[in-house]
Amino acid sequence: MPITDKLHVAPSPHVRGTVSTARLMWTVVATLAPAAAWSVYLFGLPALTVIVATVACCAAGEALCQLAMKKPISLKDGSAVLTGLILALTLPPGLPLWICAIGSVVAVIVAKGVFGGLGQNLFNPAMTGRVFLLIAFPGPLTRWLVPRGTGDTLFGHPVTAYDATGKMVEVSANNVDVITGATPLGLLTEKGTAAVAALSDQSAVFFGQVNGSLGETSALLLLLGGLVLLWRRVITWHIPVSFLGTVALFAAITNAIDSTAFAGAPFHLFTGGVMIGAWFMATDYVTSPMHATGKLIFGAGCGILTMAIRLWAGYPEGVSFAVLLMNATVPLLDNYFRPKKFGFQRLTRQEG
Amino acid sequence: MKAVTFSGGIHPSYNKDLSSAVTTRPLDPPEEIVIPLSQHIGAPARTCVEKGDEVLIGQPVGDAGGFVSSVIHSSVSGKVKGVEPRAGAVGTEVNSVVIENDGQDRTVDFSGLGDDWRSAETSELKDRIQQAGLVGMGGAAFPTHVKLSPPDDKPIDAVILNGAECEPYLTADHRLMLEHPADVITGLSIVMKILGASQGFVGVEVNKPDALEALREASADSGITVVPLQVKYPQGAEKQLIDACLKRQVPSGGLPMDVGVVVQNVGTAAAITDAVVRGRPLYERILTVTGAGVAEPANLVVRMGTPVAHAIDACGGVRGELGKLVLGGPMMGFAQYTDQVPVTKGTSGILLLEKSAVDTREPDPCIRCGRCARACPMRIIPADIAAFSARQMYERAEEYDALDCIECGSCAFGCPSRIGLVQHIRLAKAAIMAQRRKGN
Predict the structure, then answer these.
(1) Inter-CA distances, A120 with A113, A287, B129, B423, Å
(2) What is the mean pLDDT of residues B75-92?
(3) Looking at chain A, which residue has its C-alpha nearest residue B157?
(4) By residue range, what is the domain housing residue A39?
(5) What domains can be seen in chain B, in order of their start residue?
(6) How large is the ipTM?
(7) What are the tens digits of pLDDT across the range B407-433?
(8) In chain B, what residues touch A24 (CB-CB under 8 Å)?
């Protein structure tokens, strides 16, 4: 008769929704998977090894941090795997595995673990790892393998071949190990709009028949992945729309002023890291603002900084720098742009 | 008329199909009834019977302990066995009158005003409501006569009845509106007369089309507007209901009367009709016994003081392995440690959740996803307030408007990290109020 000892007593609410941190993280991983698979198709084993290395190292690094902090190991929540995958997608295929490992350590241990783990980090872990590598190893980080099916030239520019010892050889030689070529953004920075004129008319950059970081190749697959995140309500529209919108506007204006010096909006939207940055990096919950107005400002800031770096700074690409710089503004944005609460102002009485 | 709503909120699984088609039936009271002397917000009632006294149905066993208090009546005829502390609905023991039911169901003389209420003095109507022991029956149990006595500088022009029944599972209000629509409308008319209000509304979520229809018929030519509301939790929260019906926002820290509105639950309105027209005090109420943990979910008319175990037995008993026993709905109800707690005036439902529905995992860290803030109908930031509260930073919690929280649970419902946002905020609110009392 007494059911008393079976009863669980806890405060309300007594029912919960089905959203969980793990489900959110794995959804993002799944939406990135097509772009990752595409990179493996384009670049083959050198792409796959980078992905496997960063994911494995990030997972190991996270577990190590949690062991050291005597916290439960939470690899199942997918956040370390996601960091590893995003990091891989920002790196060039064929990057030596030890460099991948260093990037992973910086990402999950230096940028995340030492801040206290999930939810505590100020800066996007994957972006921190990538920027660290870019500054520490500029050579390997800017050696771009050409995609499958490339001949002697890529986008009308000659490619470069190396043998296994790293010596430059003829493309037609039989001891060729890797073939590299400049990325569209690299060409733009070095040689101006004329060098990429051919690209602007082609759909290669949109569909992804280009070289670059693993995740810079197919704007289409990234866009589709991002739309799935929107549809599944993993993210809201604010950051991607303001990020991409700002980039498009910035490019359109500069292009209208001087089309020989500046490429147009489609080129800037579909090349480099803008697509993956706007949908997958700038939308990282932990390191982006929580509320709508802050998100819009954050996205616009990312867009402006990206374009400023692309057009006037030494680096051909600026997404990761832009996101990191804007990460630093998040506490400020969250503090100043809170939602207007209910009943904040007394409304005038309406008769009727 | 297009369905209206508020901003924010959530869409939980409603699970109302379990009981919404089950016609209400009276539950025979058990041999022993336990009537708590505190079934309402405010001072407990003062007992006015002693051990050995004979009591009748509708006879007061507790007098109001002040203005903000309520009379409490016997719900059975029989003999008082004693006045002693018994388990109450919020986890503490409450002084209660224990009555042995003689099974005769003898009542005091109920003499109501009938249709003469229309010509009665406002003060008499209010007095009858007070003497009938009416409190808000949606769950908060605030004494009704207090709500009907706004200060002179707060004129009331609109009365809204809350028939949203936005809590998942519960169907008691639905059945009431369907089976007794005229009582609901009459109760609203009485309240409007007392307050001198020109406008009357009944807000009902559109998932109860039959209730909407019944109320529309009952209110024809009465000047009362039946308002269809979008199905969204917490549509029935007072401030959100006013916002939806009238586009008036109760100012932060204010009360509905600050925007000229009084809100009553539809159950309270029907009870007002009972009290004024029929002279019957509040000694029984409709409630829903439901959830996957009960064999035959039902809507029952239950005498106050009936142990919930008795009501559960009447619905075929527990099914499967029971996890939680909740009084009220799943979003704002109270989990019980015993099935011996009595049904009181504020008990809208008895919810039995299976063991598999109970989540005892530790929360994950906050990932700042912002879902809580988007779900919050008061548009405050639950994650921030909870974080301040967890660090005992109550002044910061106050700056972030912790006191505006209505504890609806929308934030915690959608939190992917399963953080107990509501209890953190409750803790902060209690600490802030304690600090304020100390300051005064």
Answers:
(1) 9, 9, 55, 22
(2) 91
(3) A351
(4) 21-141
(5) 116-277 (3.40.50.11540), 371-439 (no CATH)
(6) 0.89
(7) 999 999 999 999 999 999 999 999 999
(8) 367, 369, 416
